[in-house]
Design goal:
The chain is of the alpha+beta class. It contains 13 helices and 15 strands. The chain is elongated.
Length: 486
C-alpha cells in the first residue's frame, strides 16, 4: 500500500549500517564488485534513451490525469496504451467501472526468472475542493491540483512525487526496454496498481460504491488474476533498498456519554462524551509517542496517529451526543500480528477506562500486517548491488521506517519483494511540508532511480545482450488470458 502517504520513509540513507538488518552491504562491496561489461553495455543503451526531458514529459503526462483512489481507470488506460506501444502485451485491468490497474508483459526467451516492476498510481487526496477542504488546509495550492508545473529540475502537481514520479520512472524504463529489446531470459511484468493508498472509499458522486478501494486492493486483484512473478520491485519513496516494512492497524475507540439538551444541563444527568474524548486523546497521544521505543526493530520504528474524531450533530449544537468516536492508525513491526496490536491497545484503554471512570470500547476495523523478505534473497541482493553500482558508494540500511506500501501485499502473496525509490525533494529548501513532498519530484533523481531499476531488471531476468529490434505484432486482446473488461 501507498502510502506513501501513510508515513513516508526518510529520503536519505543512514550514515552507518544498522546492526541486525542483514540488508546493509559490507564496506568493501563496491570496491570488490566487478562490473559485467555486457550488462553495462545494455545499461548504457537504456540510459541513452532515458533522458531528463523524457522523464519530465512522462511525469507531466501521468500527473495531468487525475487518479484519486477509486478513480484510476483513465490513467490506467493511458499507461496500458503506452505499454502496448512499447511492445508489451498490456491491458487495463478493471476492478469496476471507475477503478483499474494497468499491466503488461515483455516476454523473455525462456529459462529465466520473471520480475515485476510495480508502482501504485492513486493519489492520497483528490484535488477537489468539496472533498479535500478544509482538512488539507484553507485552500488547494497549485501543487495539490492535477496539473504539472515546472520549476527548474522540479515538477510539481498532485501526486507528482508520490506515487506518480515513481510510476513515471517505471513507465519510461519499460519503454526503453521495448526499444532496446535486451535478450531477456525471464519475463518483465510492469504493473501499475490502483488503490495503493491507506484510505477507505471516497464517499462522493463518481466514485465506486464499494468500501474496499484502497489498502492495496488493486495489487491484490492483480495477483488473484494470475500476474505472479518470481520476484518484484516496488518503486516508492526512499533512496535505499528496503527488504521489509511495517504493517498498519486501524482502530475505533468509542467514548460513551449522555444525550441531553443545553437547556436541561443543570436539571438532567450530564456527561458529554466530547469532553471525555478530549482527555482520552490527550493521554492516547502521549502513549503513541512513547510506543515506537517499545517496538523498534533494526529498520522500523512503528508510529501511530489519531486521524479522526467525530461526535454530535453539526446541525444541532444544542444537544450532546450519546457517544464520541476516535479513530487511529497504529503501525506494527514486521512479524507483529494484528491481534497482538489489538491486545496492546485494549490493555491501555482498559486502564484509561478505570482512571476516567468510563467504559471505553476498542475495535480493530482494518489490518494489513507488516512483511519481510529475507535480506539474502536474490531480489534484495540484486537491488543492493544495483543501488551501489549506481550510487558508487556502499549501501547502508536505513533505520526508523514507518511507511507501508503495496509491498506488503506482494510479500504476503509469496513474492519476494524489494523496495527502492527517490529521496523526498526539497524545492526552495523546504523539507517539512508533507503535501509538497508528495506532490514534487526531481527529474535528476528520476533518472538515477531508472538506472537502479534497469540494473535490477537486467540482473534478475538474466539479460545478457541487446538483441536487434524484433518486428512488433499488434496486441491481440482475444489471446490474452489476463485481459479483463469492466
Amino acid at each position: 500500500m501507498s502510502g506513501g502517504a501513510a508515513g513516508a520513509d526518510p529520503g536519505t540513507r543512514a550514515g552507518a549500517a544498522v546492526a541486525g538488518t542483514g540488508a546493509a552491504a559490507e564496506p568493501d562491496t563496491v570496491a570488490t564488485a566487478v562490473a559485467d561489461p555486457v550488462t553495462e553495455a545494455v545499461v548504457a543503451r537504456l540510459l541513452a534513451l532515458i533522458t531528463q526531458d523524457r522523464l519530465r514529459q512522462a511525469v507531466h503526462a501521468v500527473t495531468a490525469v487525475a487518479s484519486p483512489t477509486g478513480r484510476e481507470a483513465p490513467l490506467a488506460h493511458l499507461l496500458a496504451a503506452r505499454l502496448t506501444a512499447a511492445g508489451f502485451a498490456a491491458t487495463a485491468q478493471h476492478l469496476d467501472e471507475h477503478q483499474a490497474n494497468a499491466v503488461g508483459r515483455l516476454r523473455g526467451h525462456g529459462g529465466g526468472e520473471d520480475l515485476m516492476l510495480y508502482a501504485p498510481i492513486d493519489t492520497l487526496t483528490t484535488g477537489e475542493e468539496a472533498i479535500d477542504l478544509p482538512w488539507i488546509g484553507e485552500r488547494l495550492r497549485p501543487d495539490m491540483l492535477p496539473r504539472a508545473r515546472d520549476d527548474g529540475p522540479f515538477v510539481s502537481g498532485l501526486g507528482a512525487g508520490n506515487p506518480k514520479g515513481h510510476a513515471a520512472c517505471v513507465l519510461v524504463l519499460a519503454e526503453a526496454l521495448g526499444e532496446v529489446r535486451p535478450a531477456l531470459a525471464g519475463d518483465v511484468v510492469v504493473a501499475f496498481g490502483a488503490g495503493g493508498m491507506p484510505t477507505n472509499a471516497v464517499e462522493a458522486p463518481g466514485y465506486p460504491a464499494r468500501t474496499n478501494t484502497g489498502h492495496g486492493v488493486g495489487c491484490s486483484f492483480l495477483l488473484e488474476r494470475g500476474w505472479h512473478t518470481d520476484h518484484a520491485v516496488i518503486a516508492k519513496p526512499g533512496d535505499f533498498i528496503a527488504h521489509d516494512e511495517v504493517g498498519l492497524c486501524w482502530f475505533e475507540i468509542i467514548v460513551p456519554g449522555v444525550h441531553t439538551y443545553a437547556g436541561s444541563r443543570h436539571r438532567l444527568p450530564y456527561r458529554n462524551p466530547i469532553v471525555t474524548a478530549a482527555e482520552v486523546v490527550t493521554r492516547l497521544e502521549a502513549w503513541l509517542a512513547d510506543r515506537p521505543a517499545r517496538h523498534r526493530t533494526a529498520t522500523a520504528a512503528p508510529q501511530g496517529v489519531i486521524g479522526s474524531i467525530a461526535g454530535g450533530w453539526e446541525r444541532m449544537l444544542a444537544v450532546t451526543p450519546a457517544a464520541c468516536r476516535i479513530r487511529l492508525d497504529l503501525r506494527t513491526a514486521p512479524g507483529t500480528a494484528p491481534m497482538a496490536a489489538k491486545r496492546e491497545l485494549t490493555a491501555y484503554t482498559a486502564r484509561l477506562s478505570a482512571e476516567l471512570d468510563v467504559e471505553l470500547t476498542t475495535e480493530l476495523v482494518l489490518a494489513v500486517p507488516g512483511t519481510s523478505t529475507p535480506p539474502d534473497a536474490t531480489i534484495v541482493r540484486n537491488a543492493v548491488t544495483a543501488w551501489e553500482r549506481t550510487a558508487g558508494t556502499p549501501h547502508r540500511a536505513v533505520a526508523g521506517n514507518s511507511g507501508a506500501t503495496d509491498a506488503n501485499i506482494l510479500r504476503a502473496r509469496g513474492i519476494p519483494t524489494a523496495r527502492v525509490g527517490m529521496p523526498k525533494p526539497a524545492p526552495g529548501g523546504s523539507g517539512t511540508d508533507f503535501a509538497l513532498g508528495m506532490n514534487t519530484v526531481d527529474v535528476r533523481a528520476m533518472r538515477r532511480l531508472c538506472e537502479v531499476l534497469a540494473r535490477i531488471t537486467l540482473t534478475t531476468t538474466g539479460a545478457r545482450s541487446a538483441a536487434p529490434p524484433a518486428a512488433r505484432r499488434p496486441y491481440d486482446r482475444g489471446k490474452d488470458r489476463h485481459a479483463t473488461t469492466p
